[in-house]
Design a protein that fits this description.
single chain, alpha/beta, nine-stranded mixed sheet, six-stranded mixed sheet
């Protein structure tokens, strides 16, 4: 492509000038020891991107240097009372899924699930975005490079290079990627994927396929991601996951948007769930080791975490409710968009005046019961979490393989009145594979791989409802956390494998007749319902029809067995 030839020529010129200059300035490179050295091979690799390589460039800078640069050059950056770096992400305080684009390329076009999640961008438009980002970075007084890994299993890990102009972004990715040792950094070589983050500079809205000043675009063929017009660091984290969500299934292993923990006996559980379902809370078990909180891959030998850190929500955080996360907020962590007291620098985690999406990124080693390396055996249990505000799904049900695929593809939970403007009654929301914004392949591909893994490894799959019981939101009560924990404990102890089950109506689910430390009445929503039989029948039929309507989008590629595993709609 002409654009590539142009970049290569420019890169060669920069490299030749850099290597010929006898008194050239050194690139500042920091491994585990804070030392500066000249690395011609690294310079060549970086210059091949079109970036001017000189003393502005800092590679894998130490935490102290990143703090210093952020405090000196980035407005709003301060050190919290606990030692974390507080940073501002600017106008954007969350991801911009409507501005995400995948480049339409011959090598990957037939693989991608095109539609509202994966919108097409031409190679020419991506080249424009790329050059815009590089040109911007070449004007910056400082450029940060972080080289790290995605994936704890050496067989499947990929090398990620992040190039950015904010110390906050470099520190964030230092925490979220797997940090290389000094020896690994010296032998890093060419990255497998490069993120060019010029988020401070807007995209050109007149570029074909770009519809706003924000553009987040990925080219699988060029192995590059370009960010323009958003400084929200989470775009990089989820960009890496999107790349892994494409590459891992292509390699025959299953990438998952899930948390994962391990029991004292080495038994591994995976937890899937959308926001508000209790995924973080229920997987953070003091009696079990945390493998990871968000992104994993299931291989022929077990499960590994993709990330080197955690990205936790901090709204309403307290030491009493979530002590592990609270205590992980210290020197080296990044707090995003939080409000603090000016004099003491104590953070007010209840303050939502900037955003409700306040977060903290920290290395996984900051969690005391984290398992490092973050690798576990094959899972024995999979928990699909939902928060059903209609009050008709059971607190726990054991799923058949076909039901597991159906509910995995559906990815159901519910919004409740008052959570969003205009929501006045329970509102169903579906996110395929419990992570639709990050899917690359069709959801059925992930579901079929899940079913194959379940069959091969003889895994139990459970649907656990942490939502309402006895009636819909406003009439019933939310299932107590202690009951949900007791259900998870019963799954892990093997109690539910030996339980007696009965069939549950419209959804055709197997529900246990008893669970230790859980009232028998709540296990069957039809028995717990406080209203009339007609109200219950009407409510469960309404939810069943919502499931049915949602699944029409995937029915063209789903097998008859998967379709039949859904609720029975009259």
């Amino acid at each position: 492509m002409p654009a590539k030839m142009q970049y290569s020529h420019a890169a060669r010129t920069v490299v030749e000038q850099h290597l010929r200059h006898e008194s050239r300035e050194k690139i500042h490179v920091v491994g585990h020891a804070d030392s500066s050295l000249s690395l011609p091979l690294f310079a060549q690799s970086l210059a091949a991107t079109g970036l001017v390589v000189d003393s502005r460039v800092q590679r894998n800078a130490s935490l102290s240097r990143l703090y210093e640069c952020a405090l000196k050059h980035e407005t709003g950056s301060v050190i919290s009372s606990s030692g974390a770096l507080i940073a501002r992400s600017g106008k954007k305080t969350g991801r911009s899924p409507r501005d995400k684009r995948i480049v339409e390329e011959t090598s990957s076009a037939d693989d991608v699930w095109w539609g509202p999640v994966n919108k097409k961008l031409s190679e020419e438009s991506f080249a424009i975005n790329y050059q815009t980002a590089i040109d911007y970075l070449n004007t910056c007084t400082g450029v940060f490079v972080f080289d790290g890994f995605a994936g704890w299993d050496p067989k499947y890990r990929i090398k990620i290079r992040v190039v950015c102009a904010r110390a906050y972004h470099a520190l964030f990715m230092n925490n979220m990627l797997i940090r290389p040792t000094k020896e690994e950094l010296e032998k890093f070589g060419e990255p497998d994927f490069t993120i060019i983050n010029a988020g401070q500079f807007p995209a050109n809205r007149f570029t074909k396929g770009v519809t706003s000043p924000t553009s987040v675009s990925i080219s699988f063929e060029r192995k590059q991601m370009v960010i323009l017009g958003t400084e929200y660091a989470g775009e990089m984290k989820k960009g890496v996951f999107t790349v892994m969500h494409y590459l891992m299934p292509k390699a025959g292993v299953l990438s998952l948007h899930s948390s994962c923990n391990e029991g004292p006996g080495g038994d591994v559980s995976l937890f899937f769930g959308l926001s508000g379902t209790g995924k973080t809370t229920l997987s953070a078990d003091p009696q079990r080791m945390l493998i990871g909180d968000d992104e994993h891959v299931w291989t022929e030998s077990g499960v590994f975490n993709i990330e080197g850190g955690c990205y936790a929500k901090t709204i309403d955080l307290s030491a009493e409710k979530e002590p592990e996360i609270f205590n992980a907020i210290r020197f080296g962590s990044v707090l995003e968009n939080v409000v603090y007291e000016e004099t003491t620098r104590i953070v007010d985690y209840t303050d939502k005046s900037i955003t409700e999406n306040t977060r903290c990124a920290y290395p996984i080693e900051f969690i005391p019961n984290a398992k490092v390396p973050c690798i576990g055996d094959k899972p024995q249990n999979i928990v699909l979490l939902t928060c059903d505000a209609f009050g008709v799904l059971p607190p726990v049900a054991k799923l058949t393989p076909a039901q597991a695929m159906y509910h995995f593809i559906s990815g159901y939970t519910a919004k409740i009145a008052g959570t969003e403007e205009g929501v006045t009654e329970p509102e169903a929301t579906f996110s395929a594979c419990f992570g639709q914004p990050f899917l690359v392949w069709h959801p059925v591909k992930y579901a079929q791989m899940l079913a194959q893994k379940m069959q091969q490894d003889k895994v139990n799959v459970w649907l656990v409802n942490t939502g309402w019981n006895g009636g819909a939101y406003g009439n019933g009560e939310r299932i107590k956390l202690k009951y949900s924990r007791a259900i998870i404990d019963a799954i892990h102890s093997g109690e539910l494998n030996k339980a007696e089950y009965i069939n549950y109506g419209v959804f055709n689910l197997k529900i246990p007749t008893t669970v230790s430390n859980v009232p028998k009445k709540i296990l069957d929503p039809s028995m717990a319902w406080e209203g009339s039989e007609e109200e219950f029948s009407s409510t469960i039929s309404k939810l069943a029809n919502l499931f049915h309507a949602n699944f029409k989008e995937y029915a063209d590629q789903a097998t008859p067995e998967i379709i039949a595993a859904g609720p029975q709609v009259c």
